[in-house]
Write a structure and sequence with these properties.
The chain has a domain of about 160 residues. It is extended and about 90 Å long. It has a 4-stranded mixed β-sheet. A two-stranded antiparallel sheet has the order 1-4. By secondary structure, it is α+β, with helices and mostly antiparallel strands. It has 25 helices and 8 strands.
Length: about 550
């Protein structure tokens, strides 16, 4: 093979450090952005919140100023090697000969290279609102003498483990049984199930090779399990769904046996229904899930009417006993954007809407003016300290501008979505229009990947609820009029058909497709099934009222 040299020209895109940071911040959710801001405030001394005002009396002496800046420079030198953009900055910034030149270069940074959609003010403190401060929830636990306000105590929701521990205190148990019960309570999952077997729990505590010790631990856990399953809520401590439902049926049966009106025919029928339900729950759960009446009649040796009554009883039980103790506060979605109604420009015209950013989640940051001004008077020892200080201050400015550009892009995309989906804001899901990422990208002059990052984990508060920005995008289905219907609107129409169906004769997927055809929407049966499953709507046989 003959070797040779050749010259070839090519084009490629090289992302600058500030553009990489801007892209990374753009795709973060509100919670992730808050964590990123807290980390930046901890690591960069030139970055501070706008509401934080330093006590200027502490810096009145020039010697204190120079010592403070010198300590920052020393720390920056030690950590500059691990800084994310340190290598790129060292190549872009020339080594200064005097510190005064460094100060002048820092006070006049290079312009922000964004997408041209915003104008950056020289002031770094004009954007956003205060970020939510983290509160210490365990202050009362760390300090037993601390007292909580009555409103704070009322807001605290009791967890499942706390509820069970409080009941366990009322039981008169030995020390070993009480310890075993507490261990089982702590081993429950959020739904109230005991996922680990008693043998595995015993092996995790004792010596697996000591058989006598393992048997003793299993015995203690077995006794504790019966005590746990007798606590409220009924069904807690079950190992599987069948056991959970059986515990609830047994509790109903015990209540009937203790009732005073045992001789009534209604009570007798309920008892028989409970016994039939227990018999059904002993069978494989697949038969119950499919509502296979013939198979259940054969296995339980009961009539069809009895099986139907028992299935109706089981349907009203709680499959997740710990659900009522779920912490709903952690599932609250804080919107990034609010939809504001501007009213009608003139009588008879359509109402106008616009997007407004949520100021509560917008970090209000600025460059530390004391450190930045004191840098002019800093007499560093060599150029390395000046380079490190310049890097840190430049990073602070880049971070502020990246956050500003992030919220500006979110606002632009939200306004474009609102302009396209006015029908949804006025009439709801049925008026949703087809919309894809390319439509917004072409309108705003951005790339589709940028629109995808903006619409992920960002939420908009509308008159019909709070939705992720991606919710407003959907493909289109052909109609008889030649236009397209949004897949979101078709899903809403399917949900409306199912809600209005006869429970004794539920609509099949073919029937729903035919009804959509009558509305002028061409939707195949498999597409209807896919939309129905996506909305977690049960098939026809499971929706049928027995």
């Amino acid at each position: 093979m003959k070797q040779g040299l050749s010259l070839r020209t090519s084009q490629h895109l090289s992302l600058t450090p500030q553009l990489q940071q801007s892209i990374r911040l753009l795709q973060l959710s509100t919670l992730e952005l808050s964590q990123e801001v807290e980390q930046a405030l901890d690591e960069n001394p030139f970055l501070e919140r706008e509401t934080d005002e330093a006590v200027r009396e502490e810096f009145g002496n020039n010697i204190v100023i120079e010592n403070t800046i010198k300590s920052i420079a020393d720390e920056a030198i030690n950590t500059s090697a691990s800084t994310e953009y340190g290598n790129d900055i060292s190549h872009e910034i020339s080594t200064p000969t005097h510190v005064d030149d460094v100060a002048e270069s820092i006070t006049s940074p290079s312009d922000w290279e964004g997408d041209g959609s915003i104008d950056i003010s020289p002031d770094d403190s004009e954007w956003g609102g205060d970020a939510t401060a983290s509160s210490s929830q365990n202050s009362s636990q760390n300090n037993p003498e601390s007292t909580l306000d009555a409103t704070e105590l009322a807001r605290q929701q009791e967890s499942l483990t706390m509820h069970l521990h409080r009941q366990a205190l009322a039981l008169r148990l030995s020390e070993l049984d009480s310890a075993a019960l507490r261990y089982l309570i702590e081993s429950l999952n959020d739904e109230g199930y005991l996922e680990d077997s008693l043998q595995s729990l015993a092996q995790s505590l004792g010596d697996p090779e000591d058989i006598e010790q393992q048997d003793e631990l299993v015995h203690r856990f077995t006794v504790a399990l019966h005590l746990l399953q007798s606590l409220d809520p009924t069904g807690v401590g079950a190992r599987d769904l069948s056991e959970c439902l059986s515990l609830q049926v047994k509790a109903k049966l015990n209540d009937l046996n203790l009732a005073s009106n045992l001789a009534t025919s209604h009570a007798t029928q309920l008892k028989q229904t409970c016994r039939t339900a227990l018999s059904i729950l002993k069978q494989p759960t697949d038969f119950l899930a499919r509502r296979d009446l013939k198979k259940l009649m054969q296995l339980c040796r009961e009539s069809e009417a009895s099986i139907k009554d028992a299935i109706a009883l089981i349907a009203h039980l709680e499959p997740k006993p710990g659900r009522i103790f779920a912490d709903v506060q952690r599932n609250i979605i804080v919107p990034d954007v609010f939809v504001v109604s501007l009213g009608r420009s003139k009588p008879g015209s359509e109402p106008q809407f616009r997007a407004q950013l949520n100021s509560d989640i917008m970090p209000k940051l600025k460059v530390h003016d004391i450190y930045a001004n004191a840098l002019k008077n800093f007499k560093g020892e060599g150029a390395s300290g000046a380079m490190a200080l310049q890097q840190r201050l430049q990073e602070a400015r880049w971070f502020i501008k990246s956050i500003q550009q992030r919220f500006d892009t979110i606002l632009r995309v939200s306004n474009a979505i609102i302009e396209r989906q006015k029908g949804f804001l006025m009439h709801g899901e049925l008026a949703m229009r087809p919309l894809v990422l390319r439509d917004i990208a072409d309108e705003l002059g951005l790339h589709e990947s940028t629109i995808s990052r903006v619409t992920t984990a960002k939420y908009m508060s509308t008159p019909f609820g709070t939705y992720e920005l991606k919710y407003f995008f959907g493909s289109g289905l052909n109609t008889e009029g030649g236009s397209n219907a949004s897949s979101t609107a078709v899903r809403a129409l399917i949900k409306q058909f199912v809600a209005a169906e006869n429970p004794k004769k539920p609509l099949s997927d073919n029937k729903i497709a035919a009804m959509l055809k009558e509305q002028g929407i061409d939707c195949a049966r498999r597409t209807v099934a896919k939309y129905r499953e996506g909305m977690k709507i049960a098939p026809t046989n499971l929706r049928k009222l027995l």
